[in-house]
């Protein structure tokens, strides 16, 4: 099977999101799609999947033009899509989720649960997915949920599989597993379109690469191209891939956390006796495999967790027991890992989102009225500075590409007067050019004397930005080690091994 997109153009009002894009992918091939935030990758895939109608251009399957009115048509023609935000129903089992939607496509393959179970087992065995058809989706780790999405697509005989930033939410181990799965799918004849911002992954997996910038194809580099070459082609200028920073000049301790314990409603302990301090002008990186208490730790600091014991003192102010509002008012900046849930209001404009998290909307609200001019000027400045690709400051946040949404949050939080910055996965889904910029801003925040708690599952990011590194494992501190600690040591610590001579 051969899929060709030919001269596809898609406009949103005056914005040309896809400008005569052509791309082909054949059976047994992985085609990497690279492009900066807002370049038009997801839009193109949504056209392919029948979610959007192209304004011009055509889609050809085995050289025959096809027309997809909706995803049902695309699925029936053998196109499968794994979205970054999974479309699974958490309270259903794996088999129930795989069955769901089959009725909509008019196929009669799996309309009873036993057939669905059987199909899950078949596909799972064939590709070594180790999926239990009867497991509840909500109990599965993210990497396994993604496999359910892949099985769902394969169960509908997908021959072209689109993976839109599949590794953004995966641990390094899960990423390796996914790469392996992609290779097996490729060998079995599936055609794969693979979108990622991680250049290493593209170079490792892709047989061919297409780079798009501002909606148009700018090149088809070979997978042997270097990271620097790919980055420059994506962004249109050379990109510094390493962070330059001076050694920290830490001041006195600003945040002191003692014996922090966080439990959920069911009594499970997620953070178990964690103690640390962060000095002014210092970045404390929190390393660990996702799910070892990092999320709960940051949420506890922000007042987003209900059952918290211990103390968290910021500049003599106890944060425990404070509402989120009062924590923000105390000068805590927060870049949450869940940007859509906690970072933005989708129906608000970019400018309105820029006003959030400020104490009484200051300085953009006075006497209960929004100072629209000042707000607009501020939002426009941030748009330019952070290179946020949008039609303007009035565009709704929900209409922004994922990476640009992330940039709005980072721009807003780093523009407030901060006494502490809590940054969780600050560059998730962000392109290499913007990572360079955000990293510089985090270092500048540190250098202005603000303590920074940086949580990231990207060890590269932790190593690049941190002055000290705290490793969490099963909710406990394995050790707090200096920057420059070898990665192998960090890796062992992330698996729970105590380093020699570490001090908390
Ligand atoms: N429904 C929509 N209405 C208006 N504009 C939209 C809509 N969907 C996308 N856009 C715009 O189209 C452009 C391309 O967005 P798209 O999501 O395709 O980018 P992307 O390459 O996938 O970016 P990222 O790497 O950040 O995910 C962006 O400027 C975005 O704001």
TrEMBL record:
One of its GO terms (molecular function) is ATP binding. SUPFAM superfamilies: P-loop containing nucleoside triphosphate hydrolases. Residues 3-239, 255-499 form the ABC transporter domain. SMART domains: AAA. InterPro entries: AAA+_ATPase, ABC_carbohydrate_import_ATPase, ABC_transporter-like_ATP-bd, ABC_transporter-like_CS, P-loop_NTPase. Keywords: ATP-binding, Nucleotide-binding. It holds the Pfam family ABC_tran. CDD domains: ABC_Carb_Monos_I, ABC_Carb_Monos_II. The keyword Nucleotide-binding applies. It comes from the Bacteria. The keyword Mitochondrion does not apply. PANTHER family: CARBOHYDRATE TRANSPORT ATP-BINDING PROTEIN MG119-RELATED, GUANOSINE IMPORT ATP-BINDING PROTEIN NUPO. This is ABC transporter ATP-binding protein.
């Amino acid at each position: 099977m051969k899929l060709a997109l030919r001269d596809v153009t898609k406009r949103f009002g005056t914005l040309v999101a896809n400008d005569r894009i052509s791309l082909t992918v054949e059976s047994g091939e992985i085609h990497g799609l690279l492009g900066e935030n807002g370049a038009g990758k997801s839009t193109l895939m949504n056209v392919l999947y029948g979610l959007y109608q192209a304004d011009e251009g055509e889609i050809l399957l085995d050289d025959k033009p096809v027309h997809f009115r909706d995803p049902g048509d695309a699925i029936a023609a053998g196109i499968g899509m794994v979205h970054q935000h999974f479309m699974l129903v958490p309270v259903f089992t794996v088999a129930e989720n795989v069955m769901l939607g089959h009725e909509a496509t008019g196929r009669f393959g799996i309309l009873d649960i036993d057939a669905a179970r059987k199909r899950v087992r078949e596909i799972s065995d064939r590709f070594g997915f180790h999926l239990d058809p009867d497991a509840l989706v909500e109990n599965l780790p993210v990497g396994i949920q993604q496999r359910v999405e892949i099985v769902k697509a394969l169960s509908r005989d997908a021959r072209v599989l689109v993976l839109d930033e599949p590794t953004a939410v995966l641990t390094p181990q899960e990423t390796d597993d996914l790469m392996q799965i992609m290779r097996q799918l490729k060998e079995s004849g599936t055609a794969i379109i693979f979108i990622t911002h991680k250049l290493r992954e593209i170079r490792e997996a892709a047989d061919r690469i297409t780079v798009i910038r501002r909606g148009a194809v700018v090149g088809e580099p070979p997978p042997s191209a270097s990271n620097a070459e790919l980055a420059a082609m994506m962004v249109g200028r050379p990109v510094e891939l390493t962070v330059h920073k001076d050694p920290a000049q830490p001041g006195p301790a600003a945040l002191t956390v003692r014996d922090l314990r966080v439990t959920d409603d069911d009594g499970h302990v997620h953070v178990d006796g964690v103690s640390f301090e962060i000095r002014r002008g210092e970045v404390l990186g929190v390393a660990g495999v996702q799910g070892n208490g990092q999320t709960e730790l940051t949420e506890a600091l922000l007042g987003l967790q209900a059952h918290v014991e211990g103390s968290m003192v910021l500049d003599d102010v106890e944060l425990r027991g404070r509402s989120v509002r009062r924590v923000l008012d105390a000068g805590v900046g927060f870049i949450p890992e869940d940007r859509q849930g906690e970072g933005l209001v989708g129906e608000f404009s970019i400018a309105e989102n820029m006003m959030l998290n400020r104490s009484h909307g200051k300085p953009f609200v006075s006497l209960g009225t929004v100072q629209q001019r000042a707000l607009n000027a501020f939002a426009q400045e941030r748009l330019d500075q952070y290179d946020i690709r949008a039609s303007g400051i009035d565009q709704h946040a929900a209409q922004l590409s994922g990476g640009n949404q992330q940039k709005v949050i980072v721009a807003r939080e780093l523009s407030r007067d901060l006494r502490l910055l809590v940054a969780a996965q600050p560059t998730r889904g962000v392109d290499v050019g913007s990572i360079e910029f955000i990293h510089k801003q985090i270092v500048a925040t540190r250098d202005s004397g603000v303590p920074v708690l940086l949580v990231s599952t990207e060890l590269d990011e932790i190593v690049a930005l941190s002055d000290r590194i705290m490793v969490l494992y099963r909710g406990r501190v394995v050790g707090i080690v200096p920057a420059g600690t070898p990665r192998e040591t960090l890796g062992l610590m992330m698996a729970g091994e105590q380093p020699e001579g570490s001090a908390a």
